């Protein structure tokens, strides 16, 4: 059941917790969805649900983990909804990839190339990589966030980088089987 | 612990910033792995830069359902079973709206507690603003406020305490009714009122207090 509002003190606490994390929240949603509109919807829905469950957050230090967990759930819900209207998912991804890649000014630089390569990674590889590199999550935190064991997380992280190296023409010997341990089937 | 080249690649490939002493020892003794580690650190920096896409200016936080976009989105909602409620909402006879409201408050019995607790008008105003409304005059005597889902739409739900008992008000922001109507539904007495946008349902066990609260809320709340 919903709790009645407790007044402006609650609003101040919410703002103090959430505002510093809004950039992270948006980037997390954008890289999950590869769709700016879905990302903005995810952010709004996440804020709404975070507001309503603010009292459940006992430790402000855990706010980022709490917020991104909500966002992941909301993304799953909204993405499923969007997928129903997508005639061809590949077309969607191509469109959104072009949109995202066009946001930088120097299309020939390495960052642009890596960004395009990131867009081609499967979700299961891109998400743990994003959580580790962008959000600073430990392997243990990623495992909890994605409901995986730590071995599976390490395998996905290795494979994610390995596939990026291949996409960037850097891979000279390693293959995914080098990290065959730990991944769930 | 001895680390070989495969172990090293596996560990550094998963986390280029790992500082395990055994990894450091292998790295110092193996030029190939030293090169791999440097390459992975550089790649990690590029990944970090690539992930840091520009972030748009923060949108105001609105406690409303994200807007559906176009008929395709509506079709998606239909498939998901969400939009169906919205269609019913628009097309529903007033009696269905009254019934939905009565059923909703039956799910939140605590909201109807007789209590001396009051929510400050400022807090109510902030909540309403997240729903495209605001207070233009004092409301007072509100003991409960929540954004609730009624027939698939997120709407403001508040309870006003009176000397004749609590009165529930639900702002049906997406409903359309032409004229005000009175109703009796599941032991509640109430009224449905058209608003500038949508409608408002006001209901209570005590019929004598319904109209006064309806007038008070309608006069106090304005749309942005």
Briefly characterize the structure.
The complex is a heterodimer of chains A (185) and B (224). Chain A has 185 residues and is mainly α.
Give structural notes.
The complex is a heterodimer of chains A (185) and B (224). In chain A, α5 runs antiparallel to α6, α7 packs across α9 and α8 packs across α9. Chain A has 185 residues and is mostly helical. Chain A starts with 7 loop residues before the first helix and ends in an 18-residue tail after the last helix. Chain A is globular. Chain B is of the alpha+beta class and 224 residues long. Helix content of chain B is 42%, strand content 23%. Chain B has 8 helices and 8 strands, in the order αααααααβββββββαβ. In chain B, the strands form 2 sheets. In chain B, strands 2-3-4-7-6-5 form a 6-stranded antiparallel β-sheet, with helices on both faces. In chain B, strands 1-8 form a two-stranded antiparallel ribbon. Chain B is elongated and about 90 Å long. About 14% of the residues of chain B have low confidence. The chains are: A mainly alpha (185), B alpha+beta (224).
Q: Tell me about the biggest sheet of chain A?
A: none
Helix content of chain B: 40-55%
Query: What is the end-to-end distance of chain B?
Result: 67 Å
Biggest sheet of chain B, strands in spatial order? Answer: 2-3-4-7-6-5
Structural class label of chain A? mainly alpha
| Strand fraction of chain B | 15-25%
Give the C-alpha Rg of chain A.
Answer: 18 Å
Order of helices and strands of chain B: HHHHHHHEEEEEEEHE
Count of helix runs of chain A: 9
What's the helix and strand layout?
The complex is a heterodimer of chains A (185) and B (224).
Chain A: H1 8-18, H2 22-33, H3 36-52, H4 63-83, H5 89-101, H6 110-120, H7 123-133, H8 139-146, H9 150-167
Chain B: H1 5-14, H2 21-29, H3 31-51, H4 70-80, H5 83-91, H6 94-106, H7 121-129, E1 133-135, E2 142-150, E3 153-162, E4 165-172, E5 181-185, E6 188-194, E7 199-204, H8 210-220, E8 221-223
Antiparallel strand pairs in B: 1-8, 2-3, 3-4, 4-7, 5-6, 6-7
Helix pairs in contact in B: 1-3, 2-3
């Amino acid at each position: 059941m919903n709790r009645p509002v407790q007044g402006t003190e609650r609003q101040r606490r919410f703002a103090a917790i959430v505002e510093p994390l809004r950039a992270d929240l948006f980037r997390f949603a954008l890289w999950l969805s590869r769709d700016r509109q879905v990302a903005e919807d995810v952010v709004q829905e996440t804020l709404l649900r975070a507001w309503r469950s603010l009292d459940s957050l006992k430790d402000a230090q855990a706010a980022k983990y709490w917020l991104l967990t909500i966002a992941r759930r909301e993304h799953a819900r909204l993405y499923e909804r969007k997928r129903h209207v997508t005639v061809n998912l590949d077309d969607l991804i191509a469109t959104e990839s072009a949109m995202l890649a066009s946001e930088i000014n120097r299309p020939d630089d390495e960052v642009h190339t890596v960004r395009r390569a990131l867009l081609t990674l499967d979700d299961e590889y891109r998400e743990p990589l994003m959580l580790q590199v962008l959000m600073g999550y430990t392997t243990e935190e990623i495992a909890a966030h994605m409901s995986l064991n730590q071995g599976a997380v390490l395998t996905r992280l290795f494979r994610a980088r390995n596939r990026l190296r291949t996409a960037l023409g850097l891979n000279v010997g390693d293959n995914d089987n080098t990290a065959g341990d730990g991944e769930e089937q | 612990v001895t680390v070989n080249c495969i172990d090293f690649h596996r560990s550094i490939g998963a986390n280029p910033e790992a500082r395990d002493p055994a990894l450091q020892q292998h790295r110092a003794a193996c030029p190939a792995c030293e090169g791999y580690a440097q390459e992975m650190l550089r790649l990690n920096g590029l990944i970090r830069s690539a992930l840091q896409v520009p972030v748009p200016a923060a949108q105001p936080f609105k406690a409303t359902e994200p807007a559906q976009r176009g008929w395709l989105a509506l079709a998606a909602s239909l498939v998901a079973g969400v939009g169906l409620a919205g269609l019913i909402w628009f097309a529903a006879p007033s009696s269905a709206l009254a019934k939905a409201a009565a059923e909703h408050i039956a799910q939140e019995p605590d909201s109807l507690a007789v209590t001396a607790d009051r929510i400050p008008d400022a807090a109510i105003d902030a909540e309403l603003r997240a729903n495209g409304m605001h207070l233009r005059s004092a409301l007072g005597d509100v003991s409960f406020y929540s954004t609730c889902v009624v027939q698939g739409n997120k709407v403001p739900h508040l309870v006003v305490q009176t000397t004749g008992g609590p009165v529930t008000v639900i702002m049906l922001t997406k409903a359309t009714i032409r004229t005000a109507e009175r109703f009796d539904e599941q032991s509640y007495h109430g009224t449905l009122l058209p608003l500038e946008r949508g409608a408002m349902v006001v209901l209570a066990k005590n019929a004598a207090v319904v109209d006064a609260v309806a007038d008070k809320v309608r006069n106090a709340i304005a749309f942005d």
